[in-house]
Amino acid sequence: MFDAKKTANEIIEFIRNYYAKSNLKGAVIGISGGKDSAVVAGLFVSALGKENVTGIWMPCHSKEEDKQNAIELSNHFDFELKEFDLTGVYDNYVNQFKELNHPEQEDLKDANINIKPRLRMSTLYYYAAYLSKKNKGVYIVPGTSNKCEVYVGYFTKGGDNVADIQVLTDLTVDQVIAVGEAIGVPSHIVHKTPDDGLSGLSDEDKLGVKYSEIADVIENEGRNTSEIARKRVKQLHQNNSHKFNIPTYRKQ
């Protein structure tokens, strides 16, 4: 039986121990308005204190609901939230590419989706470097991916897979929700239908499989999941294997 409160306390202690061992000061967290970043923010506030946590809301043709959820979350846990609007940067980037290459719109679909998390991650590290100098102590960037996302490769290389510390990558979506409830994340945020805030589709629509089915494949070899879903999860895992390890030549 998963003990959410015990797990939350263990994660908080894990964060504190790592910060003490590495002589770190604070955290800069990308706040999307969804459950994963909300849980990460709550855990880091508990571990480090609200004064050492800065959240960054980075809209890029984003939904107003997500912005309001990000603001509500920062008020709830009382950490500082900054807004850094990437819409103009993104538009300029894409428009310049179009002028140089004259691509078909369909050919740009995946590239456009993936550039957004890469711009966001650059912003988080930029801000962490700034705060490290300003506050005379090292700020790092926590990741917000969960175990289900990582297993099927539902992340952008050079984007949301980049992080200095991970606290959710051994938790399934249901376990993240349980931990969120245990630490007091507002219910409508922790139970919010997950989406990337980029494509207009829910995560499960994009993946073609439910997170509960992914979790069952990870934890029970898919014994409680249909054959179609099992094959889909394994296909995603296999097709995205290039994201998990970088092949590196070693001289003989």
User: What string, H for helix and E for strand, traces the elements in order?
Assistant: HEHEHEHHEHHHHHH
The N- and C-terminal alpha carbons lie at a distance of 48 Å
Largest sheet at a glance?
Answer: 4 strands, parallel
CATH class (first level) name of the domain at 4-146 and 161-190: Alpha Beta
| Number of extended strands | 4
CATH architecture of the domain at 4-146 and 161-190: 3-Layer(aba) Sandwich
List unreliable stretches of 5+ residues: none
Provide structural commentary.
With 252 residues, the protein is an alpha/beta fold. It has eleven helices and four strands, in the order αβαβαβααβαααααα. The chain has a domain at 4-146 and 161-190: Rossmann fold (3-Layer(aba) Sandwich), CATH 3.40.50.620. 54% of the residues lie in helices and 6% in strands. A four-stranded parallel β-sheet has the order 3-2-1-4, sandwiched between helices. The termini are far apart. The model has no long low-confidence stretch (mean pLDDT 95).
Please give the structural blueprint:
Blueprint: H1 4-22, E1 26-30, H2 35-48, E2 53-57, H3 64-77, E3 80-83, H4 87-101, H5 109-134, E4 139-140, H6 147-151, H7 173-183, H8 187-190, H9 203-207, H10 211-220, H11 227-239
Parallel strand pairs: 1-2, 1-4, 2-3
Helix pairs in contact: 1-2, 1-7, 2-7
